[in-house]
């Protein structure tokens, strides 16, 4: 029995050493896998951030252009209203101002990168502040802007176009600065339209809608996109 004891101890130490080697090997393998997965996730996140950066930069140009044209349209409508409420005779430049009242512009942005993010899970973006900004823009600010732009379009289609088709003739204009295309609307009887309060009321209502809803939402969306782009630039700079 005394001879067998050191052999048992030796076997026990050998087995313990084998177990330690196995544990160390597995731990190293798991650490390597975790490191590789982390690098892969960060690489995928960086790719997604760059896609968002590219599309949002284009979207900001669209939003700025839409806001500028909408402001111009509002000014033209108010100028038309002033002319209708005065005793001034018909002026040829009113054709484009009637077009400003007639036209509309719906808002379109590229949502594909955000839809990809939503499908993968918002946690694919590690920066919580950036996640909040993206969710706020795509699920709050932009839907409101899109909804109000369609309301403005429906107002033009339902309330303005039928009256114009009955009381105006349309012709191609030399300028295409106003939403809706390069056209102007010439009234059959300007004095009748001036005396009738319908067009003047349309001008007031349309300008108010543009100011309180569409332009307000365009301002909010533009500020939101600028904030996201700044956050994206910082995040991408840290990843390089």
Keywords summarizing the entry:
4% strand; rod-shaped; 240 residues; two-stranded antiparallel sheet; 2 strands; 78% helix; mainly alpha
Summarize the structure.
The chain is mostly helical.
- Which structural category do the helix and sheet elements fall into? mainly alpha
Q: Beta-strand level of the residues, as a percent range?
A: under 5%
Poorly predicted regions are 35-39
Q: Note the gap between the termini.
A: 67 Å
Strand tally, please?
2
Tell me, what's the shape?
rod-shaped
SSE topology string: HHHHEEHH
Helix/strand layout:
Elements: H1 4-84, H2 94-102, H3 112-120, H4 128-167, E1 168-172, E2 183-187, H5 190-195, H6 197-239
Antiparallel strand pairs: 1-2
General description of the model:
The longest helix is centred in the N-terminal third of the chain and has 81 residues, at 4-84. α1 crosses α2 (94-102) and α1 runs antiparallel to α6 (197-239). The chain has 240 residues and is mainly alpha-helical. The termini are far apart. It is built from 6 helices and 2 strands; from the N terminus they run ααααββαα.
